[in-house]
Amino acid sequence: MRRLREEPGWLRGAPPPRWARLAPAVALVVLVFVQRITPGDVELGYFLAGLPPVAAFAYGAAGTAVFAGVVLVLIGLPSLGIAHARGSDLATVAVIGLLSVVVAWVRKRRDAQLVSVRTVAEAAQLAVLPPVPERVGAVGCAGLYRAAQHGTLVGGDLYDVRVGPYGVRALVGDVQGHGLAAVGTVASLLGAFREGVLDDAELTTVAARLDRRLLADSAAESVAHAELFATVVLLEFPPGLDLVRIVSCGHPPPLLLRGFTVSEVDVDPGPPLGLGLAGPTPAAPAEFRTLPGDRLVMYTDGVTEARDAAGNFYPLAARVPVLATDPAGLAPAVWRDLRSFTGGGPRDDVALLVLSLSPERDRARGGAAHGGARGGRKPGPGAR
């Protein structure tokens, strides 16, 4: 799975770039050389006093102390011909060097704390929304995820793919809001979905479980926003059957890529979750038969509602056949194309999940357990 993230960057916990470490040394050599070729009545050596503060942003306390010592020697020894500091001037340069060492020590401690906090935060976010494996059961998986809020890995979109006694089930959804404020709702929905994969025999029952979860969270006094809602689409690949079941709760339907032809799956959308409108049983699932090599593209509105400079929406359905042959894979290709289309990337959370039906799934049919399959229903027409 492709998890897109913002790198911490220099001055925010990341190691300083090479040029930042070389700059003080290069400046030291250049200043000494220029002073050597400059007439004696012009002193440039005092510019060396500015090097220790610069070094403090790229080196630790020890490295900065070395720069400060070298500068003191160059300025304090008249025989070197660099400068002729005496008394208070030399003391001032020494104080500057000492303060630079303190700054470097504080910066290193702060960087270590930032790295520690960021590592813990990333581990917590990845526990909420872990990367999707390349294969779940006999279903191949590929996805991309980008949170709208910089520096975070999880936003208001969610997806997951799990295998259980009733087959492989997948979820893609979009909760109210985005960024860190929506992570709690994302965690609640993913937890309810994972329980439903194991316990609920019907896909509509899983959707009802998600709806109850949001209603319960909305009624809790500790919830800041009392009106939680989400749109989700649920997919199920029953064991031993060449079909897919889909339940939509106010979410855009998946796209079916068959060969180089893309069609939108025909599914009756139910109301969003968390509004109390779904009732005990949400909309009936749509069914359609699958063929080896079919790919289903599930996405959130952060993809299709992304705009270019002229205000046009991103044409996902039209772009998928073009990008399907990209050697890097469909999901990374969509992201590159989306960034190019929007001029840097959309400003909303983005989630896209590609599920591929491989020949291995057909070979697994003979040995699949049929206890969880509900084969009595006739598949519907499927995609339009």
What does this structure look like?
- Strands 1, 2, 3, 8, 9, 12 and 13 form a 7-stranded mixed β-sheet that branches. Strands 4, 5, 6, 7, 10 and 11 form a 6-stranded mixed β-sheet that branches.
- Helix 8 crosses helix 9 (330-342).
- 38% of the residues lie in helices and 18% in strands.
- By secondary structure, it is α+β, with helices and mostly antiparallel strands.
- The chain is built from 10 helices and 13 strands.
Helix content: 25-40%
User: Radius of gyration over alpha carbons?
Assistant: 30 Å
Low-pLDDT windows of residues:
4-8, 361-381
Order of helices and strands: EHHHHEEEEHHEEEEEEEHHHEH
Question: From the helix content, strand content and strand pairing, which structural class follows?
Answer: alpha+beta
Q: Please outline the major beta sheet.
A: 7 strands, mixed
Q: What does the overall shape look like? A: elongated
Number of helices: 10
The fraction of residues in strands falls at 15-25%
Gap between N and C termini, in Å?
Answer: 29 Å
Number of strands: 13
Mean pLDDT: 81
